Amino acid sequence: MKNIVLMSDIMGGIILFLLVVSPIAFIVGLIMIAASKEYRQLGIKIVIGAVIAFIIGFGTCFANLSIGGMH
Hints:
With 71 residues, this protein is mostly helical. It has one domain. The chain is built from 2 helices and no strands. The model has no long low-confidence stretch (mean pLDDT 79).
């Protein structure tokens, strides 16, 4: 039973990390796209990666929700 709680804590930490870092990376990527032609391609890659990470983090968080007495 302890392993289930431990996995839940680890998963929660990963989700929290993704949900905090993704918007920051998204904003940094947008600034890179807008500010410099030299770093535009890198900025686009960062924005795409941040959106994917946010979708994965949000989807994992939503999948782990326990809705009242439905489950």
